[in-house]
Amino acid sequence: MRMTRRNSLKFLATLGVVAATLFGAVGTGKAVATPSVTVVATTSMVADAVRQVGGDRVAVTALMGPGVDPHAYRQTRSDIAAMLKADAVLWHGLYLEAQLEDFLLELAERKPVYAVGEAVSRDRLIAHSDYDNRYDPHVWMDPMLWQSVVLAVRDALSEIDPDGSETYTAGAERHLAEVEALNAYAEARLETVSAGQRVLVTAHDAFSYFGRAFDFEVLGIQGISTESEAGLRRIEELVDFLVERDISAVFVESSVSERNIRALIEGAAARGHTVTVGGELFSDAMGKSGSYEGTYIGMIDHNVTGITRALGGDAPAEGMQGRLGLGS
Ligand code: ZN
Question: Is residue 206 part of a domain?
Answer without folding.
Answer: yes
